[in-house]
């Protein structure tokens, strides 16, 4: 099969790999119908952290079950499934408590499982899914979704669930004012999540016209292009002299965390979901003085998918609009370049 492999910073190739098969009784094999490039994939692509290559890459995919192990009874061949961005067992205390990203048997796509067996990356033609029943979410009543629905289902594997996690962690709800720091796919989904949860004023911080337009479509009432002190002042002006009740940090840098904290009113809440890229330490003294609560981290997508899926299938939300470019899998290298150069918000890959 064909699969996307990262060999090092800036070096993405689509290469031949063995087609996966069931190894253990708890496995499933999923034929990928759509995957995508994530903003967090860009960190190793840019050389941030260790990009050990060659290594399969990609952690967001949807597709059709092709085979199941003998112990898999809740999934069947032909089921259309969503794969959260990590593989989890579904039975340990962390999974039972809904924090599937802290699973005792956590496995990442494009790595090896706890038995030492290879696990495929999501940006390929097929994936062996260990712990299939604890990981995959079946989409009931859907076998061959159209392009628009496929795109929205794919966002539930990561970006929509992550934007929702930011909003939940920031205690977004009816009547709350919200600032979203970050205009990538996660930030835009954060805007949509805030709207879905009933926020009455949603300020998206963005400097890009295409992203501003989508933010408004998703529910943003205001756009702030300024940054730093000017950005804080603009937020305060828009909110009548106060700062936001809830702020969503969706980037992961020191600068974005500082912007988010300084946009939060005393007694307000900040939800952070940006993958830390080095330096975004939280100043405890500032939180103490301002009584700001901070929550967030990796989103337990598996836990959030059912409620978000219900709204997607009902047509209440259409997060798939964050995909502004669709490319064949063979053009994965160009997909990375397009996102790295901000020529695309998010690229959907078709095997």
Secondary structure layout plus pairing:
Layout: E1 2-8, E2 11-16, E3 28-36, H1 42-45, E4 55-56, E5 61-68, E6 80-83, H2 93-96, E7 126-129, H3 132-135, E8 137-138, H4 147-155, H5 159-169, E9 177-181, H6 185-196, E10 201-205, H7 209-218, E11 222-224, H8 228-238, E12 244-249, H9 254-262, E13 264-272, H10 284-290, E14 293-296, H11 301-313, E15 325-328, H12 332-340, E16 347-350
Parallel strand pairs: 9-10, 9-12, 10-11, 12-13, 13-14, 15-16
Antiparallel strand pairs: 1-2, 1-4, 3-5, 3-7, 3-16, 5-6, 6-8
Helix pairs in contact: 5-6, 5-11, 6-7, 8-9
What's a quick, concise take on this entry?
Helix content is 29%, strand content 23%. By secondary structure, it is an alpha/beta fold.
């Amino acid at each position: 099969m064909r699969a996307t492999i990262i060999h090092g910073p800036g070096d993405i190739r689509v290469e031949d790999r063995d087609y996966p098969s069931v190894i253990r009784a708890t496995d499933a094999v999923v034929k990928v119908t759509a995957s995508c490039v994530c903003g967090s994939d860009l960190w190793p692509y840019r050389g941030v952290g260790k990009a050990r290559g060659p290594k399969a890459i990609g952690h967001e995919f949807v597709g059709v079950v092709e085979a199941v192990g003998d112990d898999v009874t809740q999934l069947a061949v032909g089921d259309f499934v969503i794969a959260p961005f990590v593989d989890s067992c579904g039975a340990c205390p962390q999974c039972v408590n809904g924090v599937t990203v802290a699973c005792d048997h956590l496995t990442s796509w494009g790595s090896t499982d706890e038995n030492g067996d290879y696990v495929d990356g999501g940006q390929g033609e097929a994936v062996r899914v260990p712990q299939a029943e604890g990981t995959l979410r079946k989409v009931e009543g859907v076998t061959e979704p159209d392009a628009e629905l496929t795109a929205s289902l794919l966002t539930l594997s990561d970006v929509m669930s992550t934007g929702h996690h930011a909003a939940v962690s920031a205690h977004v709800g009816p009547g709350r004012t919200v600032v979203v720091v970050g205009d990538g796919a996660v930030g835009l989904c954060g805007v949509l999540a805030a709207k879905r949860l009933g926020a009455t004023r949603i300020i998206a911080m963005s400097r890009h016209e295409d992203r501003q337009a989508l933010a408004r479509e998703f529910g943003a009432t205001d756009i702030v292009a300024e940054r730093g002190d000017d950005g804080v002042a603009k937020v305060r002006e828009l909110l009548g002299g106060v700062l936001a009740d809830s702020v969503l940090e969706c980037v992961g840098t020191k600068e974005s965390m500082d912007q988010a904290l300084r946009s939060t009113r005393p007694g307000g809440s900040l939800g952070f979901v940006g993958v830390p890229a080095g330096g975004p330490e939280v100043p405890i003294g500032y939180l103490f003085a301002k009584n700001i609560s901070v929550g967030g981290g990796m989103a337990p997508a598996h836990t959030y998918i059912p409620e978000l899926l219900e709204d997607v299938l009902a047509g209440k939300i259409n997060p798939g609009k964050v995909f502004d470019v669709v490319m064949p899998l063979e053009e994965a290298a160009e997909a990375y370049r397009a996102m790295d150069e901000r020529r695309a918000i998010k690229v959907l890959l078709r095997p």
